[in-house]
Amino acid sequence: MKKLLLVLLTVGAGYLVWRKYTESADERDLWAEVTDTFE
Questions:
Q1: How far apart are CA 14 and CA 9, in angstroms?
Q2: Low-confidence ranges of the chain (pLDDT < 70)
Q3: What does the pLDDT read at residue 27?
Q4: What are phi and psi of 36, to 5 degrees?
Q5: pTM: predicted TM-score of the whole model, two decimal places
Q6: 4-27: b (≥16 Cβ within 10 Å) or e
Q7: How far apart are alpha carbons 18 and 36 in whole angstroms?
Q8: Measuring CA to CA, how many Å separate 28 from each of 2, 32, 33, 37?
């Protein structure tokens, strides 16, 4: 039972890290689009 709880906590933490990374990637893409110079 303890192993299952540990696995679930690890998966949950991994999901939160992945979600935070994708959010920051979206913000970086938006910032790059806004700050690009017009040619």
A1: 9
A2: 37-39
A3: 87
A4: -65, 145
A5: 0.62
A6: eeeeeeeeeeeeeeeeeeeeeeee
A7: 27
A8: 39, 6, 9, 16
